């Protein structure tokens, strides 16, 4: 779970208010860490001043020895917004739309952006999800929990890590590393899974076919079903998004809660300091 205290009080109404103007949006993004709260001059290491120009807000350093030719940087420098020319207001709404699982086509109609723009920003958000999952311990299960170990039902094997060595020492070591003690494991009773040390309990998946709540069938498969037709290269990021939503948030999380978590993930990846 994330610490979302820095975004307490944020609602969809807040989003509408902060995206009413570029100035309000830039200030809010600096406050929450989507943009740098301060910027050091790359030449003299002194703090730069934020100035409004005809090209928007820019960081400027007019201290000696370069007062005759001020050093400048865009307010977006080093941020997730750095390479985009779209207004910050539009970009922030795109982030919210992705976090709240709004269809890309709907966003295209509402924001007047192209298919490429909408898809690219949704992919950027999934990159954040992937980074968060790679950084997590990702140890699952525990007392009272059921997990399933099986071959992937997808086109290709896409998992957090791949393993071609299916011998008992290798697979048992991976189970101990990634599955908590006391977990009930559903498997096909493949010989290499079976342990005699009773660290975990194994059961044949045919014996547990009615225990559907919380299992792979109803979560990741259902999510992937809605993504049919995707480019195969994007499949890992779609899986990471699904895992991110289920790993860091409660089952009934709102779009606003997901957005808050996305903001936290972006801050962690880009390392911005809040204003």
UniProtKB/TrEMBL annotation:
InterPro entries attached to this UniProt entry: IS1016-like_transposase, Tnp_ISXO2-like
Domain of life: Eukaryota
Residues annotated as domain ISXO2-like transposase: 139-247
Protein name from the UniProt record: ISXO2-like transposase domain-containing protein
Organism, as annotated: Aphanomyces astaci (Crayfish plague agent)
Lineage of producing organism: Eukaryota, Sar, Stramenopiles, Oomycota, Saprolegniomycetes
